[in-house]
Hints:
Shape: elongated
Mean pLDDT: 89
Amino acid sequence: EPLIGYLYSEYGALQTEIAVNFTRRYTSDKTAVEAAENGNANTGTVSGLEPDRLYFLCISGGGSAKYSLRFTDPSIGEIPTANHHDTITENDRYSTGNCQDTAPILFANTLYEGNYESGYQWVAFITGSGEDQRYGVALTNLSPGGGQLNGYLFDEYGTLQTEVSPNFSRRYTSDRTVTEAPESGKTNTGTVTGLKPDSIYYLRISGEGKARYAVRFTDPEKPPFDPAKGRSTIGAGDPLEAASDSVKAPILLPNTAYEGEYESGTQWVSFRTGEEEGFEYKVTLENLTVGSELLIGYLYDCDGTQQTDQSINFTRRAASDKTFVEAAQDGKAATGTTRTLRPNSLYTLSISGGGKAKYKLTVTAPDSASAKPGTPDGGEETPSAGSQIIPGTSQSSALNIPLDTKVFGKYINGNAWIAFTTAETENAIYRITAVNCTVGSARLCGYLYDEEGTQITDLEINYQRRYTSDKTVVEATEDGRAATGTAASLKANTKYYLRLLGEGKAQYSVLVSSPEKDITQINTSSSFEEAKGELSETEEFYTGTNQNIATLLKKNTKYHGKHEAGAVDWVAFTTGPEENAEYKVTLENLTVGSERFNGYLYDEYGTLETDVSINFERHYTSDKTTVEAADDGKAATGTFRTLRPNSTYYIGIWNTSSAEYMLTIGAPEKENGGSTVGEAEMVFNIPFELNETQVRFLGDQDVFIDEEEAKAALRPVAETILKHPDHPILIAGTTATVGKQEDCLELSDKRAAAVKRLLVEEFGVPESQLLTVGLGYADDPFVRGRDLDSAGRQIETEAAKNRRVVVLDADSETARKILKTD
């Protein structure tokens, strides 16, 4: 129970002119001193005593107790109270006292570790000789799940020190703790001013349960504390094993990507800053687990002061929150950037979440030339043109796709990640084009990010965003139209990431167009329907459901179509070589009583062509239809004079009713009045590419890896050739840019011959109808992947695109150039 002291004169008069450094039990009580069981020294300062008089102190209590007692007389001088305290050096075993009198003295700027059991623990430190110094008291709870530890600071008289600037939020506004250590492992520090020089001060530690802890007194006059002492360093490639507290947090190497697993509670890691002031540091966190809760990171110095002077590339959950990074389960990298970290200092990062999750963590520092953050290779498999892809679930696992290569995927749910690397040209323009190939599906949205997860919003788009605040790079709707975002601010030789997000299952295609595309190179087709030529008037008329499978029509040929209510019919045509030629799209509604037919003309990127003259009245003044055909039977025509030569354009035809129609693409006639521009009767209107995803060979050999797979890929090719026995066909082999051109010529020729043998022996194609040629890499006229970087290293994603066999008409202009028969 508390011990209570009352002060009396020799006549028994109670002395009440007393200033106390404690809270009396009762407001009406006039105790001179009250000593509670917490070990605090309590002092009553008395004024008004008469000189040379005897005074008496009456001590009473509610039970047995040991105590110490001291009367202070200013005329005698101070007692050196530190003399009777033990001192614990850095190498001694840490112990505590149960009251101020038994508190051991700790060295300043030295870390001590102890165990809290119950009650109150006391330690002490001695201030330096300087006036007006700032001292710190740092406390860290090292036991996850343990109760909070609280520290209070007192002078030798038991006066609570309240001129404290804490770097934490006190539990109660009325509390006067100098430090509080929560079970999260965070170091909390109270900075104290107004301490007297060369004096002893006492820290009382109490808690809510058993816990291990670390304590440190900071004295600016003493040699500085090394916070890295005793910590482990995790090397590149080593597993990330985080600590449960900030004191033991392992040190990460800068500019190195680490992978870790979050289980529960709070995980801690640390990093060092360099020697220069004002450097920019970045912490990038990526949540790799789909469906997990948010992962949150806070940045602190070694005293536990939170770092809040930062710029972030994510939206915080709460406006008042000061998180440094927040990584959601969408796989997007989140980055916090700061320029105010002190040089040659250690900083700690806490990571917490709402459930188990794998994550990737990188600290980017400017004074190292090692790997960039958030740029692991990711996606070991690299697709070729026309292939089905399986995207990653996060930036780190994003599937790399080559530039200028259309790939196809199936969106299921969650976030699908694709990556591409820009070319060497600075300030180049890139187009990201997506097509939703599934009729009736929900909208598919694409967002573009850099390696740190910063969203790229400097875009020009050819579609209408769902929300004005949305920053999608593409939004592909179920009408099959291509959606394109154009970015002009991408850095050269840099990896960027496309995140696809939808509301339901959908097939899609993605194409990233490069500014370095060589216009002298010839496009090949990854679609057999497109490659085998334009639909003639005598063939059954069919349409595609999206731009990717739009039916290629001959020009100046009338087609009879049947439209299903609510669908969008897609057809296409290719312009001739002339500049400023006049093209007409004529649509006629053949079904009386049906709704109006609407036709829209788009380029390959889905950009609506609006520079059109029309011979009909548009339904809405704001509409940009190419043609509108009412049920009155009148033909409607849209005329264009600004279409690019040698380009493919697409027409989307829409009606809410089922109806029949006639469609004609009008183009300039040749001067001799023969067939229309560019319409030579070819088996393959566009050279057809058989790449590594369809016909695969053993490395540096002409032997098929899977002959049955190769037969399946060549079957439609053979059937088409057999329908045109009078047309000679050229089979051309190409290779990646590797080794000597002479060796690649021989290998590519052998592989072309292997394809020829399969067509002849398996499908009965006449051998005399087939020619073969090897082009290697130097003589390849077709659009190639950029398979060497600026340092001459091979880029496998692009090299895979160049290992192929191309099938084309031997009488075509391209084949004649290859065979040098012009």
